[in-house]
Amino acid sequence: MKACPLAVILVLLLLAGCAGSRPVPAPTEEYVEVDNPAATMSPSAPATIWVPKRYVDNGIPRGGELVKKGYEAATRGSGEISSPPARAEESRSYARYNRVVSVEKERVCFNTDRNAGIKPGVKLRLYRGGSVVEGIGFVPGNVVGTVTITDPVGSGACGTLDQGGEARVNDLVRVE
């Protein structure tokens, strides 16, 4: 009888010893070391951190970059719409506004319908911001300047900034 519990203990020890000998697979994603954006905000934060390489390759704006430059500066020129897609009733309310998708110095490009009557020489008013008000539709933000169309391109058009301030991606334009 004394041999049976001793044999069970030996078998369990043998199994426990074998269970830990499996090799651990290496991570499949490559990591790189970058400056820690929180290091300037917290004295106890490490100076560098490890992040997936795809974060660096894809150009995802990091927190420190957003704090220093602001969101518009960090995403300028990306050509992507950063706002959520509009619901159908909202998009009908401001269909005559077109979104700026690219800005290069004085050249401003924006999306538009082919049959919107956009032709070279037409003047557009440039707006920054705005909101959708229920029952009214889209209420534009501040007027930033004017743009004169120089050439229709594909499903959009490009023009030159005539008056006013600096144009930014995601600003809106409308025929005067």
Number of helical elements: 5
CATH class of the largest domain: Mainly Beta
Rg measurement, Å: 29 Å
Helix amount, in percent? 10-25%
CATH homologous superfamily classification of the largest domain: FlgT, C-terminal domain
User: What does the overall shape look like?
Assistant: elongated
Strand content: 35-45%
How many discrete structural domains?
Answer: 2
CATH architecture of the largest domain: Beta Barrel
* Global mean pLDDT: 74
Short synopsis of the structure:
By secondary structure, the protein is of the alpha+beta class. It folds into two domains: 31-75, no CATH class; 89-175, Beta Barrel (Thrombin, subunit H), CATH 2.40.10.
Describe this structure in words.
The chain is of the alpha+beta class. It has 2 domains: 31-75, no CATH class; 89-175, FlgT, C-terminal domain (Thrombin, subunit H, Beta Barrel). The protein contains 5 helices and 8 strands. It has helices at residues 3-19, 53-57, 63-69, 71-75, 88-93; strands spanning 31-35, 48-52, 98-104, 107-111, 123-133, 137-153, 156-164, 172-175. A hairpin with a 2-residue loop joins strand 3 and strand 4 (107-111). The radius of gyration is 29 Å and the shape is elongated. The protein starts with a helix and ends with a strand.
